[in-house]
Amino acid sequence: MSPSKINPAIAIQELLQQNPAHDNDDRLRESTDALRTIAEASKQAAEEKDPAQADAAEWKGKFEQPDKISGGKHDVVHCESAQNLDDQNDSKNQTNEHGMGSNEVLSRGESDSAHRAIQNQMTEKVLFELTWSSKGNDIVSCEMGNIKTAGRTSEQITLTWKSEPQTVLIITKPNSTPVLDLCEDIVSWLYMHKKKIYVEPRVQEELLSISSSFKFVKIWQDDLQKKVDLLITLGGDGTVLWAASLFQGPVPPLVSFSLGSLGFMTPFSRDGYKKQLESIIKCPTRITLRHRLQCQIVGDSAEEENATAKTIFVLNEVTIDRGQSPYLTNLKCYCDGEYVTSVQGDGLILSTTSGSTAYSLAAGGSMVHPQVPGILMTPICPHSLSFRPLILPEHVTIGVEVPAGSRSSAWLSFDGKGRKELKTGDQLICSMAPWPVPTVCLNGSTRDFMCSILEGLNWNLRKTQSSDAPPQPQP
Ligand SMILES: NC(=O)c1ccc[n+]([C@@H]2O[C@H](COP(=O)([O-])OP(=O)(O)OC[C@H]3O[C@@H](n4cnc5c(N)ncnc54)[C@H](O)[C@@H]3O)[C@@H](O)[C@H]2O)c1
Ligand SMILES: Nc1ncnc2c1ncn2[C@@H]1O[C@H](COP(=O)(O)OP(=O)(O)OP(=O)(O)O)[C@@H](O)[C@H]1O
């Protein structure tokens, strides 16, 4: 018997009777289905009354659903929200110059089915809720056709574990004694707290060379991605980029300890690591969802080389430059399939907002708070006086092509690594990825960001003028 479409309360009752929950995930999926049924029922009932009420009911249904799932007051984002990701992908079905939808391009190879497969594997992890609240209000409402934003989408996000994280992966910068020292301390502390600990093979060797008692530390392998509850990095920003690159899908919450010189994405220091980890593991914690870009190379020569073109995720940026060529790059740029401009210069950076303080900044791009969902398009030494950097909205798909007749090919690099040639006629397709990197904040997303630009870059540092100003001439 199908669930009732008319009475929401009966619909829920029927669904729960038909499908007793087996575990948390099943229960959540059923709840989501039930709530979708409620939204439809409310809409249907409202349509019979009045079209304006129908709109209101639909919107209300959309924005009230997450509250009802969790029983929480203002939850907007849930870690298990697979439907959102699908919707997000569907909405990107636009056509580019090759006559392909952007989603279609990105799903060539394995990306789309891989996305689904990864979503289906998420059951082994400790679950948590994400709270996205704005002073007690929903992010957006629409009553009687009046659209109102009650809060900002860049509001602080909070992560609350449903039970303590159990499996921890520690990634460390190589060749550093202070890093190894801290790694030893953190591993011992986590072991005392009965956590399963994984490290890279190099680190296991280093720990065993210190003491054979470290044999409880296990070796990380790629197929363990779905088991990691918490990711810890010890190093600089490069180590955060490295750790994120190990997760070509969903990324667990990441705590980064600063042992480098700059540390824009590494707010924690080694002093007081025990208190900090204790608090992160046990209490609600503030996070920044750092968006990533998904990149794919398409075109005849790319296909010849690699029949299943892989999607590459970047946390900072993808760079298209002239490599060793002495010539200017000539790059045709497309936005949602429409030609917009050509870059003639040293190249182009497509950056996330997290990457806005890295290479893009050095090339003249603006600094953007990492929680702002945008894509930066920053030229490198353009041979034109008017090519100012752009920040585009998160939903666009950008294509960059080396056109036929160019003097040379171009070169790609992903977060400063993995150089690949972009041959004449090939296109790089780039859009916002569905899997951000959730980095744990020390003092909240905005304070951490302001601290990093003030301390890391000495932003707007200037001696204050003295008060003894010369007298102004009378008008
Ligand atoms: N001219 C430049 O500024 C330039 C040139 C090449 C690469 N890079 C950056 O280096 C990154 C790779 O970093 P790496 O550590 O592996 O290489 P790396 O060891 O060469 O260090 C590059 C520097 O960039 C800093 N950095 C990295 N990500 C940052 C971010 N999001 N905000 C502020 N600073 C950041 C690092 O702390 C480091 O000091 C690339 O993603 C690129 O953004 C910058
Ligand atoms: N686990 C790892 N395995 C291999 N390479 C790594 C690993 N962690 C970091 N790296 C690489 O080591 C390099 C330096 O790392 P990182 O930026 O963290 O340190 P740093 O250069 O001392 O920091 P900063 O740039 O802030 O001074 C980077 O290129 C990074 O990709």
TrEMBL record:
Entry keywords, A to Z? Kinase, NAD, NADP, Transferase
Q: Does the keyword NADP apply?
A: yes
Superkingdom of origin organism = Eukaryota
| Record SUPFAM superfamilies | NAD kinase/diacylglycerol kinase-like
- Locate the region Disordered: 85-116
Residue stretches of biased makeup (Polar residues)? 85-97
Record's Pfam families? Answer: NAD_kinase, NAD_kinase_C
Q: Which PANTHER family match?
A: NAD KINASE
HAMAP family the record matches: NAD_kinase (MF_00361)
- Family that this chain belongs to: Belongs to the NAD kinase family.
Q: What is this protein called?
A: NAD(H) kinase 1-like
